[in-house]
């Protein structure tokens, strides 16, 4: 198992995984990911904020990070944090606790970058996902109605998000 930055050569697979995740979301939830812009992913790759976890040379999952997320985290954005977004898992690797692997990686990544928190959000009140993130070490902080979603992907429009964090020691 290896975690590295995604490259432009990975873009086709990243979008394939996003489509699979979105199609799954559509079968279970009223809110689902929109079709993300190519420019968004290219910028994340160029800024070394798009990641991949590989198993046996295959991409098992992808995600993006940022150190700044003011529209979602509002006044808490000033806390030194790494924010994780858009985890998408290859169906061939489901059930392998990959979010727990991402958490282990994120603890080192956050510490190496002077951050004290690892944070995530999900749109809505998905009780199964809330429980799963709890098993992966996240504290559920509750829900927040977004005040300003301008510039965020479409699924955040007029959304209520569930917030999660891990406080590093």
Automatic annotation (TrEMBL):
Pfam families: Acetyltransf_1. InterPro entries: Acyl_CoA_acyltransferase, GNAT_dom. The keyword Manganese does not apply. Keywords: Transferase. GO terms for molecular function: acyltransferase activity, transferring groups other than amino-acyl groups. CDD domains: NAT_SF. Signal peptide: none annotated. Residues 1-159 form the N-acetyltransferase domain. This is Acetyltransferase (GNAT) family protein. It comes from the Bacteria. PROSITE patterns: GNAT (PS51186). The keyword Transferase applies.
């Amino acid at each position: 198992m290896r975690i590295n930055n995604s490259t432009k050569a990975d873009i086709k697979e990243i979008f394939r995984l996003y489509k699979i995740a979105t199609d799954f979301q559509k079968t279970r939830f009223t809110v689902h990911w929109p079709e993300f812009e190519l420019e968004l992913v290219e910028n994340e790759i160029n800024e070394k904020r798009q990641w991949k976890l590989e198993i046996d040379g295959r991409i098992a999952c992808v995600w993006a990070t940022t150190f700044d997320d003011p529209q979602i985290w509002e006044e808490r954005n000033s806390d030194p944090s790494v924010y994780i977004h858009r985890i998408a898992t290859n169906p061939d690797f489901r059930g392998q606790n990959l979010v727990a692997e991402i958490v282990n990686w994120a603890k080192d990544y956050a510490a190496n970058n002077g951050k004290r928190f690892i944070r995530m959000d999900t749109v809505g009140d998905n009780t199964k996902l809330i429980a799963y993130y709890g098993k992966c070490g996240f504290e559920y902080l509750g829900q927040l109605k977004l005040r300003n979603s301008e510039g965020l992907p479409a699924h955040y429009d007029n959304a209520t998000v569930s917030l999660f964090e891990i406080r590093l020691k």
